[in-house]
Amino acid sequence: MKRCTPSRRHAARGPGLVRWLWQLGVVELATVITGCAPPTRYEQPSALRGYEILITRRDSLGQGIAEGLRRRGFTVRRQVRGGSRPTAYLLEFTFQEAEPPALTWLHVRLADTRTGAIVAAVSAPLDSLGATTPDRARAIVDSLAASPP
Q1: Which of 1, 43, 57, 120 could tie 147 with a disulfide, CB 3.0–4.6 Å?
Q2: Dihedral (C-alpha) 8, 11, 12, 17: value to the nearest 10 degrees?
Q3: Rounded Cα–Cα distance for residues 145 and 30 (Å)
Q4: What does pLDDT average to over the chain?
Q5: How far apart are CA 107 and CA 34, in angstroms?
Q6: Is the pLDDT of residue 14 over 90?
Q7: pTM of the model
Q8: What b/e sequence results for 97-106 when a residue is b if at least 16 CB atoms lie within 10 Å of its CB, and e otherwise?
Q9: Residue 108, H or E segment
Q10: How far is CA 117 from CA 8, 86, 89, 134, in A?
């Protein structure tokens, strides 16, 4: 009695072919390939002006930075939107040193939403940016706009 099945027999029967291909992993691979994004090449803009800026923060500093960037001619969005121009997300956080003089640093990063690459960054002691939130926002916008590509 012969236990192997010739490949022609699998080609002749539809459900058997699918089952056989599934066992080989071909159907699973085809499912993964068809579920991926189209094969396009993403080119990162060379300057910050090539990006739309995504600022989702609703606090006074986030709003001040958004307004300052708009005044400088940048396109600023508040919500994520797929299929749009290259976008950079604004991320800001503070860090306090453990040892004296225990400065509090403000770190602001603009990261490409497709690659995660940092396209502009500002780090400064919070005290040096100004006493009020509008002063801090202005200093951050000035530094981000002056960042080299």
Answers
A1: 120
A2: 130
A3: 45
A4: 80
A5: 40
A6: no
A7: 0.68
A8: eeeeeeeeeb
A9: strand 104-112
A10: 51, 12, 10, 28
